Amino acid sequence: MKILVTGANGFMGHGIIKELSKKGNDIIASDFTDFLYDYPHVVSKAGNLFEIDTPYEYYGEPDVVLHLAWRDGFKHASENHINDLPKHYEFLKKMVSGGVKKLVVLGSMHEVGFHEGSINENTPCNPLSLYGIAKNSLRQMCQLIVKGTCTKLQWVRGFYIVDNTEKGCSIFSKLIQAANDGKKIFPFTSGINQYDFLDFDDFCKQVAIIVLNNSEFGIINACSGKPESLSSRVERFIKDNNLDIKLEYGAFPDRPYDSLAVWGDCSKIRNIMETN
Hints:
Helix content: 25-40%
Distance between the termini: 16 Å
CATH architecture of the largest domain: 3-Layer(aba) Sandwich
Oligomer: single chain
Strand content: 15-25%
Largest sheet: 7 strands, parallel
Number of strands: 14
Number of helices: 8
CATH class of the largest domain: Alpha Beta
Order of helices and strands: EHEEHEHEEHEEHEEHEEHEEH
Structural class: alpha/beta
Number of domains: 2
Strand order of the largest sheet: 3-2-1-4-5-7-11
């Protein structure tokens, strides 16, 4: 299978491509610059995918496109989410028109908005941030794009990813950055909210196996299925990484659009993992 991965040099791209390359598939890694890693079966294809008239042909007529490319993912109020939305739509529409067999697009639990409890594919969505609104809109657009075509759609709804690299913009990356800068105190919220946390390597494995699976379609949660308080997970992260830093609880207010307890229904991903 030939798989195009957009946003290859992003926060998640390299890890997912690494997992996909282990399966022996041909991978085209697309980003503004050449792919930064050397994995087997991977060919780098640099360029601005939004400016390509016939992307399906340009990228060698892939069987699958895994669309990870997204600007300002951790900046939920950035207007770039809305400004870029038509570009994502046009790119994916061109891929389907060209003949790609499957779209796999990265979504977010922020599409749902304020919700208490487990999230499944039928949970109503009422996003409360520009990021969530844009992701939810793109999901609806993708459903329309593939309707009446032979192209299948897998919408991978991501939850909270835990990684110990300082390159990202998550709270965990910021903790690593602060510790490396010699800071002893880290401003924090109350930490009482409970989320669905998934370690980076496990997330990449889940996404890779979804891409290679052809039995489950529609919305698929990439998650653990278990809620854990933010304070508990962050304190454990500090301990596991031997960081000499303490949390300053209450320094920041909790975001009003964050749920007190929310996690993903893992039925679909569990079925995929068990059958592959």
